[in-house]
Specification:
Strand content: 5-15%
CATH architecture: 3-Layer(aba) Sandwich
CATH topology: Rossmann fold
Order of helices and strands: EHEHHEHEHHEH
Structural class: alpha/beta
Strand order of the largest sheet: 2-3-1-4-5
CATH class: Alpha Beta
Number of strands: 5
Shape: globular
Length: about 160
């Protein structure tokens, strides 16, 4: 069987980490957190409340793509997260990569702000959430799920729809 990559995307607070970790655990697949691919400079910039620009994101996206390619080359299925806010970012992550399925965790501004506001010790602050919604280009080619549902229901729907 071919390897599969599930790429969970959405704005901050959409549940990428929660859903990704739980889904990967259920499937017995490795989990790759997008935040772990950021440079120290990117984390510092966001920690100071400055949104990243395309220049900042380019090496981050490239490193996520390289890790995805490694999994596919080694025939290892995995779950990855990445905000993937713009179509151009998703193209970097997915073009020419067979076996990658995009899952969009759709989140409204109020839910995102509430969730990010409850975080402690994370560099993404609530005052940066609006910039994510401004940058967001909703994907047309993704399994889209409402993140106001309980995580268990979201995971069950992903597994049911994608036959996992």
């Amino acid at each position: 069987m071919s390897a599969r990559i599930l790429l969970l995307m959405g704005v901050a607070g959409s549940g990428k980490t929660t859903i990704g970790r739980r889904l990967a655990a259920q499937l017995g697949w490795p989990y790759h957190e997008a935040d772990d691919f950021h440079s120290a400079a990117n984390k510092d910039k966001m920690g100071r409340g400055i949104p990243l620009d395309d220049y900042d994101r380019a090496p981050w996206l490239a490193s996520i793509r390289a890790a995805m390619d490694d999994c596919l080359a080694d025939r290892r299925s995995a779950v990855f997260t990445c905000s993937g806010l713009k179509d151009q970012y998703r193209r970097v992550l997915m073009d020419g990569a067979p076996g990658v399925t995009l899952v969009y965790l759709a989140c409204d501004l109020e839910t995102s702000l509430a969730r990010v506001g409850r975080r402690r010790g994370h560099y993404m602050k609530a005052d940066m959430v609006q910039s994510q919604f401004e940058a967001l280009e909703v994907p047309a080619d993704a399994l889209t799920l409402d993140t106001r549902l309980p995580p268990e229901k979201i995971i069950a729907e992903i597994r049911r729809t994608l036959v996992l």
